[in-house]
Structure formats: structure tokens, C-alpha cells
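Bumping my old thread because nobody answered last time. Still need a sequence for this structure:
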């Protein structure tokens, strides 16, 4: 009975005592355990749930201390009377017609979908995830403790409304941006919840209804989705081997979102001559450029200056992120631009969620200031270069009929299937063999245009498993094509 009431999950990836505490609290909140209800003795509950008695005793004691449970001498442990708790409704409330009420439907937009259970696959070629073997967890944990010191807590526990952690702003200006040839003043930097947050802020401030916004095609899907959500007219910008083509397609574009460092998703690096030509175009057409400094810190394109470092007209707004270096779950990035724009972005951010969590900002500031960031960059660069070399070699060996974009590094490969292989069929067949790849259709402006394309992410798969994973992908391709052996 108690196993059913508590719904205890011992496979949830947490200590058993924590799992039991959370199960008891959840059962109380759901109404399965009522105030005043007696819980079984620790020995009998431990026997029924398959736990050590000490685990149950420790969980009971912790919940009694928090007022969730109460002890009655010589009677036992009971659910405490919390007061004011209403029982769950007997029937759910009647539904409204949300189709008629919603002014926008972002849930219907196409976007990148990653399986939440990607870690259980032997060959997870998924993009944007962090390899826990490369992340300096002990260092981050130690710095997190430092960020809990009295002086730091006094800062980040307060409501600073629009202010960022001055230590993080200083660290970005001193340890991150100068490596890219960018030297802003503090008032020209805003901390964001990542690049996507920065794109939303800029679209809200700069994308006028009906205004023409240029988005790379293929390109980052949510750049397109965000601009569309703000009523902009999207101009898909096609590419050549050097990035965005500067031809008639640029006519009338007032705002262009580009990824010159490593193009998303092909990983092409825009050469210096094209960067300079793009800036010349922006000057002639009085246009603005949003530069997503996509995955350049740990890649070979760090040798090329970003657009902002070359800009002399103040037309470039730079968006950066720590997601690919630290971890996507930390949600930390930054925007660099002219002070008047940053001031408005800061005011808009206040209306959305005030500031980016200051405790994470302080820990990241310490990580940067003490040199750990540079050390991690070196480690990641070496690991990704090794993985990229292995993947490129194995693709050439096992998938010779697949076209690969002319990239020279980064944390992914962009591939196109031969004409006789249906992309979605291949992705499904690969998944049955334990291989996860990222379908490419969402990156294209026209639905269905990228059925044959896919991305091989390398950040979360060890180098030692890449060859076997690509061999399994080749076997899936042969199966879909209806012939044995590698694809010719």
C-alpha cells in the first residue's frame, strides 16, 4: 500500500533518502496523504520499500524538522496539519477555447527537437550538450561555495532590478572579448540568458512589423521564429562556400542576423574578405547586423576577427554565449552594442524577468577571473579538434556518397544524404541502432527543403565511440537504400 501511495522512484538519479523525502512531500501535496494520517514505523516502511532503515529514519527526522511531519510521543509519526490546504477538485475545471483567445501560437513554429533521453544512446551525435568528462565540476563546485560567502551573498541575494554583477561584466570585458579584438566599456555589455534571449531582446527593439529581416537559409531556426513572432517579414539569405551571398537578395534588408565565425548549421567560416564586404554593404544600405558569435571561442575561427572588431560605423551588435563552453543549463550569455541600445535592452529585460540570476553570474565571474575559462577553452579545443578529425575521416571512409559542408572544425559536421536515401527514414533506422543525429529540416525556411540534411554533433560523444557510431550510421544507410555494404 505505501509503495503505491508514495510512488517512490529509486531510479530517479538522486540519493535514496532525498527520493523518499520528495515522495512523501509529493504525496501530501497531491492529497494521497492527509493531515493527521499516521505513517508506518521506520522498520516496516523500510522493509516494504526495499530501503535501509537508517534511510527512512533520516528522512523522517528531516521532514519533522521542516514541519512536514510531526511526532506524537508513544504514538508515532503523522502528517502535520499545514492548514489552509484545499483538497483536489473532484472534477477538472471546464476548458476554454484557447484557439480563439491566443494572439500568437509559437508552439506551432518549427524548431530543433532533441530527445530528452539522449544520454542512454550509445552514439549520441547530438549538438549543444556538454560532455561531463570535460567540464571542471570540482572547480565549479568550489567557486560556487566562494559565491556563497557573506559578501557575495549580500550582493546577489538583493534585488538589483536591472544591474548585472559588476565582477562578471569586468571579467567579460577583460578576459573574453579582448581575445576577439573587441574592447567595450561596461555600459556597452548586457548579461543575457544566452544568445536566444539576446535575439529576443533585439527583435523586440529593432524588428518592426513588416520590416525586412535577413535570416540565413539554412540558419538557426529560432532566429527566424523570433523575428516572425515580432511581425517582421523574413528574407531567407542563401549561402555559398564563404557564407551569406551579397547579391540581389540583400536588397531592402534593414536588419540581418548572421553567424560568420561558424555558420549555423554548416559550420562554414566566413573569410575576412566577405566580412569586410558585408560591413561595406551595411554601411551603404544603412542596415544593422546582429552577429551571433557562434562557436568561435573553442574553434579555429578564433584567428579571424568578428564583425564587431572590424566595424567602424557602430552597426554591429554582438551576441555571445557561455553555453557551449560551460553548460547550456547555466543560461549565461552577453550582448555587446552601443550604449543607448544596451540601455534599452536592459530596461526591456527588467520588464521580462529583471536580471539574470546573480548567483550564477558571480560564480561565472570567479571562473573567468581566476583563469579557469582559458584553461577550459584549451581543453575543449583539443578535444573537439580530435573528435572533428576522427569524424571527418570516418565519414569519408563509411559515407562516401554523403556530401559534407566545407567546414574545417567545430563541434559538428553538416551532411546531406545521397538522392536515393530518404533522410527521415535514415534517421529512424539509425536510432534503432543506437545512433542519434539531428535532422536538418528545421534549419531551412521552406518546410521540407532540408529533408536530406542532418547534423552530427560531436560535443557529447567520446572520440573513442565516433568511429563505431558512424559505422552504425552507414549500416542504417545501407539498410534504407536496400543494399548491403557502404554507400557508394
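Sorry it took so long. Here it is:
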Amino acid at each position: 500500500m505505501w509503495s503505491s501511495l508514495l510512488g517512490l522512484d529509486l531510479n530517479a538519479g538522486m540519493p535514496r533518502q532525498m527520493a523518499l523525502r520528495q515522495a512523501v512531500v509529493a504525496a501530501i501535496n497531491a492529497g494521497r496523504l492527509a493531515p493527521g494520517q499516521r505513517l508506518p514505523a521506520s522498520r516496516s516502511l523500510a522493509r516494504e520499500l526495499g530501503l535501509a532503515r537508517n534511510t527512512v529514519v533520516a528522512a523522517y527526522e528531516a521532514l519533522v524538522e521542516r514541519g512536514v511531519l510531526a511526532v506524537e510521543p508513544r504514538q508515532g509519526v503523522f502528517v502535520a496539519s499545514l492548514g489552509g490546504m484545499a483538497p483536489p477538485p473532484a472534477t477538472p475545471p471546464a476548458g476554454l477555447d484557447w484557439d480563439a483567445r491566443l494572439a500568437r501560437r509559437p508552439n506551432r513554429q518549427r524548431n530543433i527537437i532533441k530527445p530528452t533521453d539522449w544520454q542512454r544512446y550509445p552514439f549520441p551525435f547530438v549538438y549543444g550538450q556538454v560532455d561531463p568528462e570535460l567540464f571542471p565540476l570540482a572547480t565549479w563546485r568550489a567557486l560556487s561555495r566562494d559565491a556563497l560567502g557573506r559578501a557575495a551573498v549580500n550582493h546577489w541575494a538583493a534585488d538589483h532590478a536591472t544591474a548585472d554583477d559588476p565582477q562578471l561584466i569586468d571579467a567579460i570585458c577583460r578576459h573574453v572579448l579582448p581575445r576577439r579584438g573587441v574592447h567595450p566599456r561596461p555600459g556597452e555589455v548586457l548579461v543575457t540568458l544566452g544568445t536566444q534571449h539576446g535575439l529576443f531582446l533585439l527583435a523586440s527593439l529593432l524588428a518592426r512589423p513588416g520590416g525586412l529581416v535577413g535570416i540565413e537559409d539554412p540558419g538557426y531556426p529560432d532566429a527566424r521564429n523570433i523575428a516572425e513572432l515580432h511581425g517582421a517579414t523574413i528574407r531567407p539569405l542563401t549561402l555559398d562556400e564563404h557564407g551569406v551571398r551579397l547579391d540581389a537578395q540583400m536588397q531592402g534588408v534593414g536588419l540581418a542576423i548572421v553567424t560568420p565565425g561558424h555558420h549555423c548549421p554548416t559550420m562554414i567560416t566566413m573569410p575576412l574578405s566577405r566580412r569586410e564586404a558585408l560591413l561595406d554593404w551595411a554601411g551603404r544600405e544603412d542596415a544593422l547586423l546582429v552577429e551571433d558569435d557562434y562557436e568561435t571561442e573553442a574553434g579555429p575561427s578564433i584567428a579571424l576577427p568578428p564583425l564587431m572588431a572590424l566595424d567602424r560605423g557602430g552597426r554591429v551588435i554582438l551576441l555571445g554565449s557561455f553555453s557551449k563552453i560551460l553548460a547550456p543549463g547555466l543560461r549565461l550569455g552577453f550582448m555587446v552594442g552601443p550604449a543607448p541600445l544596451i540601455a534599452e535592452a536592459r530596461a526591456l529585460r527588467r520588464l521580462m524577468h529583471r536580471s539574470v540570476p546573480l548567483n550564477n553570474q558571480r560564480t561565472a565571474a570567479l571562473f573567468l577571473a581566476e583563469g579557469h575559462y582559458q584553461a577550459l577553452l584549451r581543453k575543449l579545443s583539443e578535444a573537439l579538434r580530435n573528435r572533428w578529425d576522427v569524424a571527418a575521416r570516418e565519414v569519408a571512409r563509411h559515407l562516401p556518397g554523403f556530401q559534407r559542408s566545407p567546414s574545417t572544425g567545430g563541434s559538428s559536421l553538416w551532411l546531406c544524404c545521397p538522392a536515393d536515401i530518404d533522410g527521415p527514414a535514415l534517421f529512424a533506422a539509425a536510432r534503432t541502432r543506437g545512433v542519434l543525429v539531428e535532422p536538418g529540416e528545421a534549419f531551412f525556411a521552406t518546410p521540407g527543403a532540408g529533408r536530406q540534411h542532418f547534423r552530427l554533433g560531436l560535443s557529447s560523444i567520446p572520440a573513442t565511440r565516433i568511429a563505431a557510431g558512424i559505422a552504425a550510421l552507414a549500416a542504417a544507410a545501407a539498410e534504407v537504400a536496400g543494399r548491403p555494404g557502404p554507400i557508394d
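Residues 416 and 453 are 4 Å apart (CA to CA). Let me know if any region looks off to you.
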